[in-house]
Structure formats: C-alpha cells, structure tokens
Amino acid sequence: MCTKSQPIDWTTDCKNQNFDGIVLVSQSYETLPAELECLKAPLHDYSSVDSALGDEAVVLKVPGLPGNRLLFASTGPVNRDYDDIRRFSDAAECGIKRAMKAGMQRPLLVCPPHNDYEKSPLAAALGALHALYMPIEVREANCKSTPYKVCVLGLWVAKKEQGQKLMDLANALEGGRLVCRDIGGSDPERMAAPRVAEYVLELFKDSPVQVEVVSDVKVLEKEYPCLAAVNRCANAVSRHQARVIKLQYCGEGPVQTTLMLVGKGITYDTGGADIKAGGVMAGMHRDKCGAAAVAGFFQTLAKLKPKHLKVVGAVAMVRNSVGSDCYVADELIVSRGGRRVRVGNTDAEGRMVMAVCEVSPQLFTIATLTGHAIRAMGPNYSIIMDNAGDVLGDVFEVSTIRREDYEFHKGKSEYEDILQSNNLPSSATPRGHQAPAAFLIMASGLDKFGVDSDKPLPYSHIDIAGSSGPFPGVPTGAPILAMATNYIQL
C-alpha cells in the first residue's frame, strides 16, 4: 500500500535545469521580485499579442529556462473585498494541470510571497498537490508505471532557509489530505469498515500515533449502542461489519492542549429503511469524509510531531444498509449517555454514529452531515457550530446552536428523552444543519457540561457536507488544513 505523497524538492534557482518547466503563480508578472527578473521580459512580450494572459494559463517557449518552458497561471485580482488566499491555490492547481498537458514531468512551481498573504507559497503548493493526487484504486491497480502523476514537484523559494520548512509543511499537510482522500473518496468496498481499519493500522505502524480497533459486536452494542443499531443490518455481511478505530497522539513535553475528535464514517449510506429513492443514493460512499479527515489529521500530526499537544480520536466506521435486520423509525435506543432516543429517520444515521463522545477538554465532531449545510452556505464551505481558516484557504462559515435546536430534539412523549430526527430531509428542515449538533450534545450527555456546569466542556461540530469536495471528483481533505493551522505552529 503506497501512502506516500507526491515527491517534492526545492530550489532557490529559477533556472535550475533539474526541472523541465516553470509554473509561475502570481497576480502580475510586473510585480515579480528581483530574483525573478528574468521572467518579466518574456511575459511582457507575450502580453502584446495575447490580451488573455491574465485570464488563463499560457505556455511560452523561453530558451534558458528549465525545459525552455514558462507557464504563467495568474491569480487574477487578490485585493478585492471578497478575495482570499484561495486565489493562489486555485491558480496553482490550474497551472499544474496545464503543465501536465504540456508534458512537464518535473515542474518548478514559482509563487513569490504576496505582502497580504504570508502563506501564499504554501497555499500554492497545496493547490498543485491537490491536482497531483492519484486515487488509491488507480495506484493499487498498477495500471500506471508510477504511483505519481509527475516525477517531482519543485518549489521555488527566495532564501535557502525557507526551502526545507516549506517542503516539510507541504509534505505533512498533503500527507494528511492524501489519507483523507484515500478513505473518503474510495468506493464502499475498497474502504469498507474492516479495510479502513487495515489501512489505518498499516499507516500508523512505527509512528507516534497509537491505534486500537474495536470490532467485537458485543463491545459495540455495550459501548456504542447508537452505532450498533446502524450496524445491525450490515453486520450480517462480514466485509461490511462496523469498526471503531481509536487514535491517540501525545507530543513531547507537558500537555497544554487536548483535543478529542470524532469522525462520522458511513462507508455507504443507503438511507436504511428510509431508503434514498429517486436516484439520490449515488455518491453516498462520500459519507465517510468526516472520519477520513480525522485519520488524515493524525497523519499530519505524525509527520510534524507538534509538542505539548495531545489528540484523541474516534473514527466510527459503519455501513447504513437496508434489509430484514435494519433499524427502523420509531425504535427506542438507549444512547451511551443513558438517554432514550426515538429514531425518527434512519437516513439521519450520522448523528447516531457520532453519539459516542467522552468527556475531554476540547471536543469536535466532524461529518458530511446535512444537505442543509450546502443549501445554507453553498459548496466549498465548512460550517462550524459550537456551544460556547482562512490562513490556507480551508474556509469556514459560523453557525450558532440556539434554544430552538434543543427544543426540536426533545422527546415528544413520555417514551423517549430525545427525538433523533424528523422524517424530512435536512435541506427541507428549518435549521437543518444546526439542530443535529444539539442532538449530539443531548444524546451524548454533553449538555451536562455546558457553561452552567462546574466543568464546562468546549464542543464544536463541523459539518463538511459542502466542503468535502465534488462528486464526481476528488475530496478536498477539509478541514485538515484549518485544524492544523489552529492547533499546530505552521
């Protein structure tokens, strides 16, 4: 199993002949620094015959440069009210795709730092690496001569002391996103729960990340009753049986911050008894991107080894199958927090799977949870909700959990403490992405640790239904970059 990211190298010489072409990412060639003065004249001459120079990636023949090729991928304006650092990652992604079409196998990415965007070279590198990801199914099929789309990606830096740091950060962050794409983007058989467990065990062998896999049905029923209910039907098929994968990282030195992450890993969501009808089931293998992001974040931790940070993770992998033993609406299930939960909709299985939380200083749940998140904020944006990153372009919108969300999930009769869901899609439910966070708080018992308690527990739910990536297409790896930016000194 190859889980190595695209090979990367760095140089301070834009004429380094170890590369076979330059991919320049910048707002304008006119503002290039002195170290890149040799790139200005060819682009200036080209602009006199092609007014589209700043609108699309163009390739020029420039003798003396690596491979005699210069590809310019303009970011376009970056100083308007609505611009952000994604201009650089988008331009780099576009530029590298064009470079591969031009036949480059050793492209040198040149992105000089922008005064308003300190991390623009790193953002550009990550945009290029996103374009260079090769799906695990393709890598494992051995239908290519190499598991990489290009031989090496070069990164230009102005000073030597910047090179190794930029390369190490790009490797670590892309390593996490590669794991997220492998797990989240692969089909429901290649990344069925048992095979995800195998992948994770192999990935973290001989690393600072400790792994424990829970597979015994009796243990799942006792410790994770809500997940066990979803697993009941899938458990009849051995290759689909649920797994809870526990991860732990503890950096050197006294612990100053502790994180607890729970990731939703629905390997395939049929909707269960509330079947996804009308052709909307396609793409539901992506319902495991929350769990994939948790595993990916641990890979970034394993590579960067941040000090004074402890992270505990639970990756809840289960298939929401339909059949004679599937759980159904109206069932009463006692959660691990001791609450009687009335199932309202078996297609709201994600919140059932994640109601496994333990008390920890700072807690996150991460999930491709609701279509309402996409309707409310549009694609490309994660939504964070809490009871209490624009730096690399892993952008968030903020929602607040309100009293109406708790009222929505209160039991409607004396039979149950909590109603899991109504029987409408989240996209047709008012506050359809906020309310599930309230359910998670109630079902897990976290409501006992609110601001009114002796031991308040910060908790945030991240809905990545919109930001996890397009289908068909490649998962983005959200919110790994945002988590790393916030909790690791990049």
Q: Can you give a write-up of this model?
A:
This protein has helices spanning 40-47, 86-101, 120-131, 136-141, 160-185, 193-203, 217-223, 225-234, 289-304, 349-353, 371-377, 403-409, 435-444, 480-487; strands at 8-11, 21-26, 58-61, 69-74, 107-110, 153-156, 209-214, 243-250, 257-269, 309-320, 332-334, 340-342, 363-367, 382-386, 396-400, 418-419, 459-463. The protein has 490 residues and is of the alpha/beta class. The strands form three sheets. Strands 7-8-10-9-13-17-14-15 form an eight-stranded mixed sheet. The protein has a six-stranded mixed sheet with strand order 1-6-5-2-4-3, sandwiched between helices. Helix 2 (86-101) crosses helix 3. It is elongated. It starts with 7 loop residues before the first strand and ends with a helix. Mean pLDDT is 92; it is low at 356-360.
**Which spans of ≥5 residues are poorly predicted at pLDDT below 50?**
356-360
Shape estimate: elongated
- How does the helix and strand content classify structurally? alpha/beta
Largest sheet: 8 strands, mixed
Q: State the helical fraction.
A: 25-40%
Q: For the largest beta sheet, what order do the strands appear in spatially? A: 7-8-10-9-13-17-14-15
Mean pLDDT: 92
Separate helix tally? 14
Which percent range describes the beta-strand content? 15-25%
Report how far the terminal alpha carbons are from each other. 28 Å
Quick structural summary:
With 490 residues, the chain is of the alpha/beta class. It has helices at residues 40-47, 86-101, 120-131, 136-141, 160-185, 193-203, 217-223, 225-234, 289-304, 349-353, 371-377, 403-409, 435-444, 480-487; strands at residues 8-11, 21-26, 58-61, 69-74, 107-110, 153-156, 209-214, 243-250, 257-269, 309-320, 332-334, 340-342, 363-367, 382-386, 396-400, 418-419, 459-463.
